[in-house]
Amino acid sequence: PIRQFIVLTWIVLLITFVIAFCFLRDETVVDADDPDPSNQLPSPSAQRSHRLGDDIFDDEYRENGPSADSHATMPLDAIPARPIVSPRMLKKIFPNQFPVVHSPEDEEATREQGQLSNHRKTRRLSALPNYKVYKTPSTRECNNHESHTMTCFIGNPINGIVHVINQIFKIAAIINTWQVMVFGVSCCTIAMQWTASEVVLPPFLERRYGEHIAIYTIQSINLFGGLILPPVVGALTTGTEDFQIVMPGLWIMASSPIFLALFPNVLGACMWQIAMTVGEVLWSPRQDSWTAGLAPSGMEGLFFAIGSARSLLSPLGDMAMGFLNEKYNTNCPDCRDQYGHFCQYLSVENDVLQCVSVQESCDLFLSVENDNTVPTCPKTCLECATWEATNPSIFWFMLMAFSMSSPLAVWFFLPFLRGHHARNDGCYGIFKMSTKRILGILGVVDDCISYEYIEESEMRATHEEGVIVAGKE
Prior knowledge:
The protein contains 21 helices and six strands.
């Protein structure tokens, strides 16, 4: 089965790549009657100016888009965009609203019939947009006229590779990128609780309390809590600084395995799921909003991917969870059938006592004791005669210890994550100690250095540089 899974995985990956390569296209859709300057290509004169050494297209256009006097033109390969829903279908679906929204073709037919008195006014108010579609400039094929522009990469793969490398360096030069990455990596260990909830909790409950335990109902506590509680928590904590909510949430979630460590039973599992969910809904949604606030415009998806960098280390967490589960939550294969079910039912045939499962007979035979008491078949690993007992509390204590490293790491980098300090101010304030710095472990705001201070420092530095340049001139 493992080989089949691996082969099918590679087949699906190959098919997905072929579909994406052959059918996915990067195209831009614009309204020809109301164009967006950021989607327009520069005029031929601007391109010629760039090839002659002018920086109009490379700097001004690429940063701010074409200006009013740049005479931006529609690409030659722009074609009409076909609407997903035709005007006739719109008329059938929305018969009352369609009279004020119709296509230019219907408008022309109506005008010819003499039923349209003010064609220009109606066209401006009611005509469907005249959408055009063309290849996005960054994916256009190179030709003789565009071979020197920075918007052409497909024709020359080397330029595309150089462009990607330059983009990586530009992203790495943004301090917000490192803030998001540091926070994401710091939360790697606390994310192991999600793995433990999926990998370790089901066999823990099943091996110790039998197959009749509502394992996935207990797991669903975290699922439903993650769906229902975030909007409530967000409404109650609106206006609160992000890490004033994140730090308590991290500590609550990190300490939640204590319930299963002290009470390794069904009740302890439910308490763990509840505490973990409460902590998660405090810090995880706030991480998303904090990441979105740091991301530059148009790069939100990239920053979310950087914030999820801990997922790259998830295979190591899965391996660790599997190893610890095998060591501190051992199985009892001698009391199961080949499908994994417990041989929990007693069958008597020809005075032979044999344990059977819900699917087949097991190679487990019993004998009547001297006091004529009827033996029972094992319903859990605790009742299996060959099972080696272990202490599951050790695993849950270890999981809690691993999780505690996440809020400690976030607290260590907290001044850097908040951005209250400059680079030369104790390495973004990381190595500056104060009462508020220590209390930041609970989310207290370190207000000894404020944003206004940094802005004034930067303005002062900029003014000094201007004075020096003016003096040289």
